[in-house]
Amino acid sequence: LRGAEPIAGRGSIRLDATTSKTAFRFPLRSGTWLVAAASSFHTTHRWGVQEEFALDIIQLGPNLRSHRGPGEAHADFFAYNAEVVAAADGTVVGVITGAQERPPLLLKPGESLDAYYGRVGAQQAENFAAGMPGLMGEGVIIDHGNGEYSSYAHLIPGSATVRVGQTVKAGDTIGRLGSSGNSTEAHLHFQVCDKPAGLSCAGIVPTFTGIEIAISDGPRPLQSGDLVVVP
C-alpha cells in the first residue's frame, strides 16, 4: 500500500533426504538397464506425488534404441518379456489384473510433436477411464514392512505369478515386463510408496544395493538417463 512500511520476513522449507528403510535389489535380473524416467525435474514423474521417485526402466539394444526395426510390435522391444522380480522380501498385498496391451505409441516418421502428443493424450484419456487396470496395467504391490510398499506396473497381461497374501523373497519372479495400461512402450514402472496403492500414496526414494551406476562417481539415488548394471 502507498506509504506503508516495508516488512521483512523469512521462511524455510525442510528438505527430507531420507531414503527407504528397506534395501532393494534391482527389480529386473542381470543385464544393463536404462532408467528412462526417474525423479529428475525434467521428467513427468516428478510432478506426481505417488510417482515422484518412480523409475521407468527399459533396455537398449546394439542400435542404442529400445526396439528393433520400427517398433510396431511389443516383441520388437528389447525389454519385453523380461522377468520382473521382487525387489525385497515381503508379502503380496495387491495384484491388478484385467489390463490390456495396446499397440506401442511411438513418434512416427515425419509426425509433428503436436500430432504425436494428441494421439498419446487421446489414448491416455481412455486409459484413465478404465481405472487401475487402465493406468497401472497388470501390476503387483508388495508390503515390506516399515510402511513401505513396492509397486510393479505395466506387466504382460496374465503374467503375474503371485497372489495376494503370498510371501516372496527378493529375486523371486513375480511377472513379465510388458506394456499394459498407461504405457507408450514396453517398460517396467517401479515405485516405492507409503501405502499399498498405486495412485493414492506418497512416493519414497528407494535404497538400492548390488547395482552399479555406469559413469557415476559413487552410490546415489537413481536419476533419469542412468545406465544400471546388474550383475
Protein model, in words:
It contains 2 helices and 13 strands; from the N terminus they run βββββααββββββββ. With 231 residues, it is mainly beta. Strands 1, 2, 3, 5, 6, 7, 8, 10, 11, 12 and 13 form an 11-stranded mixed sheet that branches. A two-stranded antiparallel sheet has the order 4-9. The protein is globular and about 70 Å long. The chain starts with 18 loop residues before the first strand and ends with a strand. The model has no long low-confidence stretch (mean pLDDT 92).
Gyration radius, in Å: 19 Å
Number of helices: 2
Number of strands: 13
- Report low-confidence residues grouped into runs of 5 or more: none
**pLDDT average, as an integer?**
92
Q: What spatial form do the alpha-carbon principal axes imply?
A: globular
Query: Main beta sheet: strand number and arrangement?
Result: 11 strands, mixed
What structural class results from the helix and strand content? mainly beta
SSE series: EEEEEHHEEEEEEEE
Give the N-to-C terminal Cα separation.
Answer: 65 Å
Tell me the helix content. under 10%
Strand content: 25-35%
